[in-house]
Amino acid sequence: MVNVKETLGGLEWSVKVADGSSRVLTPESGPLIRRVQLGLEGLVLKVWKFFKKAWDLGVEDPKKVIHCFKVGIALTLVSLFYYMRPLYQGVGGNAMWAVMTVVVVFEYSVGATLCKCLNRVIGTCLAGALAVGVHWIASRSGDRFEPIILGTSVFILASAATFSRFIPSVKARFDYGAMIFILTFSLVSVSGYRVDKLFDMAHQRLSTIAIGTSMCILISIVVCPIWAGEDLHILITRNMEKLANSLDGCVSNYFMECASSTDDEEDFHKKLQGYKCSLNSKATEESLANLARWEPAHGNFSFRHPWKQYLKVGTLIRSCAYCIEALNGCIGSENQAPEFIKNHFSDACLRLSTHTSSTMKELAVITKTMTKSSKIGFLVGEMNNAVQHLHKSLESLPANIPPAQSPSAESSETDKSTSTSTNNNTFAVPLMELLPIVTVASLLLEIAERVESVVDAVTELASMADFKTEKAEKKLKQKQAIVNNKHDKEQHQASQEELTMKALQQV
């Protein structure tokens, strides 16, 4: 028997059991608890995946973690001007502008930080000086003409500065400075109309901005500097290496089809697609080259290092990558040449791709070590010989394919005309069967020609940047080895003397 009673929370259901006792029925809470538990587990799993990705990112590129700590150090030091009373009284309530400056101008690389800092300082000083001058002229023109002069000056200068941001040369290097110029001039001109102590306000703003920018420059250069020029140098070198690996992979996969048996399939696919990195690196190269011009001399890079030449080399590398992309398309094409034609040209094509990739790898070594190589001339000569060999194979295409390997020759033995052609070791090959292999061969010839242009560009870079010769590099390594040996011997002698002195003291 079921009884229903009204309670404060709603209805209470009870059931009488056979022994006369009653039991109160409560709603099952299992499914709700299970849903909450699953939701919490999903949230914890998402948080764990997020932290794992963040950890992997930090392990993969520790420079990003270092940059985060550098920003934290700069903000902490600048914040002292707001926390400590003597420093706060020196800069006044505008100390917060120093904190804002650090947040805005501190960038990942030294070049980007210097670019923004100098742009901000120059734009602020120039705009502040013009605003003060316009304010001085307007204040002596009477109350009637003062707002008109100020408004007209804001309109003219803001319009001119905004138009300058569309000029490519200005946009590439001074876009941020033009924006700061517009902001500062507008603020000073408008606020100067109501503020009496305009010079004091301008002085405090300039001092706080100078504090913030100097702190950013100092920490960016002194504490684990990250150079944009070095990143550009490494990027160009890696693109050369990836291009060479992709060329080898494409040609071997087309003719031999043994990639899955020799290498791991995933690694081979990465090498095969490595050329795409150079296709997508144009914007990065231009940005790094622009930022590298702001950097001081560091390491092997002088103050006026030819960064524009790196852009030229990168452009030529991309031209080779476009050909490799077309070559890669031939692998998956439905229109394939017969195997007997492939086998006939495999030796010449593989030889050319091997010498071309070897030349590209040697260029990568030259650029990476910044050392002139004596082997590059020999490698270019071998590549040109392979080009001539492939040219000869193409010129003698109809006559040099063995007729015994041709299925058309085997099926037409009874035909008199065909038998005559086989006796003369020639036969007619359909044009559609020749087109795929001719396309591959022509692409390889074009790649070799473009690689030779890369050789000329790298040679010009070596001359402009004054790369070291191999002999000078060997002498430098020998001297360094001698110095290291002397240092090790001195340390060993010092440790022996120390042990001897301890033994004598114990005696």
Automatic annotation (TrEMBL):
<feature type="compositionally biased region" description="Polar residues">
    <location>
        <begin position="493"/>
        <end position="507"/>
    </location>
</feature>
<dbReference type="InterPro" id="IPR020966">
    <property type="entry name" value="ALMT"/>
</dbReference>
<feature type="transmembrane region" description="Helical">
    <location>
        <begin position="207"/>
        <end position="228"/>
    </location>
</feature>
<protein>
    <recommendedName>
        <fullName>Aluminum-activated malate transporter 10</fullName>
    </recommendedName>
</protein>
<dbReference type="Pfam" id="PF11744">
    <property type="entry name" value="ALMT"/>
</dbReference>
<keyword id="KW-0472">Membrane</keyword>
<feature type="region of interest" description="Disordered">
    <location>
        <begin position="483"/>
        <end position="507"/>
    </location>
</feature>
<feature type="transmembrane region" description="Helical">
    <location>
        <begin position="65"/>
        <end position="83"/>
    </location>
</feature>
<comment type="similarity">
    <text>Belongs to the aromatic acid exporter (TC 2.A.85) family.</text>
</comment>
<keyword id="KW-0406">Ion transport</keyword>
<keyword id="KW-1133">Transmembrane helix</keyword>
<dbReference type="GO" id="GO:0016020">
    <property type="term" value="C:membrane"/>
</dbReference>
<feature type="region of interest" description="Disordered">
    <location>
        <begin position="397"/>
        <end position="424"/>
    </location>
</feature>
<feature type="transmembrane region" description="Helical">
    <location>
        <begin position="144"/>
        <end position="164"/>
    </location>
</feature>
<feature type="transmembrane region" description="Helical">
    <location>
        <begin position="176"/>
        <end position="195"/>
    </location>
</feature>
<keyword id="KW-0812">Transmembrane</keyword>
<feature type="transmembrane region" description="Helical">
    <location>
        <begin position="95"/>
        <end position="114"/>
    </location>
</feature>
<keyword id="KW-0407">Ion channel</keyword>
<feature type="transmembrane region" description="Helical">
    <location>
        <begin position="121"/>
        <end position="138"/>
    </location>
</feature>
<keyword id="KW-0813">Transport</keyword>
<feature type="compositionally biased region" description="Low complexity">
    <location>
        <begin position="406"/>
        <end position="424"/>
    </location>
</feature>
<dbReference type="GO" id="GO:0015743">
    <property type="term" value="P:malate transport"/>
</dbReference>
<dbReference type="GO" id="GO:0034220">
    <property type="term" value="P:monoatomic ion transmembrane transport"/>
</dbReference>
